[in-house]
Amino acid sequence: GAGVSQTPSNKVTEKGKYVELRCDPISGHTALYWYRQSLGQGPEFLIYFQGTGAADDSGLPNDRFFAVRPEGSVSTLKIQRTERGDSAVYLCASSFGQGQAYNEQFFGPGTRLTVL
Amino acid sequence: AQSVTQLDSQVPVFEEAPVELRCNYSSSVSVYLFWYVQYPNQGLQLLLKYLSGSTLVKGINGFEAEFNKSQTSFHLRKPSVHISDTAEYFCAVRNYNEKLTFGTGTRLTIIP
After folding, report:
1. Rounded CA gap, A114 and A116, in Å?
2. pLDDT of B54-83, one tens digit each?
3. B104 and A41 in contact by Cβ < 8 A?
4. pLDDT of A1 higher than 70
5. How far apart, in whole angstroms, are the C-alpha atoms of residue B63 and residue B76?
6. A59–chain B Cβ distance below 8 A for any pair
7. Hey, which of A9, A41, A69, B83 has its CA 20 to 30 A from A91?
């Protein structure tokens, strides 16, 4: 596709349930990022992948959050035992390579997660 | 650690008037600076970026920003706004790490 895609666009779940959010990056982009945007706030970094490995997961709030990128392309963000405070828009971005300042991060439209 | 402050949460401006959206940052190392725009129900789009060199950078849609190292600022400006500029604007910084640190955003509303 032409840009970063995320599915689903909206997800409503109940407290305590498990959810998976999917990100399909731009073809050829080796770097992939997850951010979380709560209402009225700017996006906050969660995790960054370079290829298949998580290069920086310092933004994951706790061990209920986990992300994978098994083949270096599509990534899945997994949230266990969801809480109402997890409600937010989850953004995915991708870019070429790493370590280059000019590597622009291209963002997807996001998944709006609502935990009832 | 680095942080970004956008003091103005909302800025109303009359159509065809100039606008300035303020951004200040703090960081113990050199940073790269960005402005992103988020139109309603859309993803973030890069407006412009400062990496090095000239402190005045020009972006898309007629926007420009000036990097001021002594004041640790990166204010966004446009000489004449249009209805289509209505959106949320985010300032962000990055250092040698890959992650972006965003401000809380400024909602720009254009008044006809």
Report:
1. 6
2. 899 999 999 999 999 999 999 999 999 999
3. yes
4. no
5. 7
6. yes
7. B83
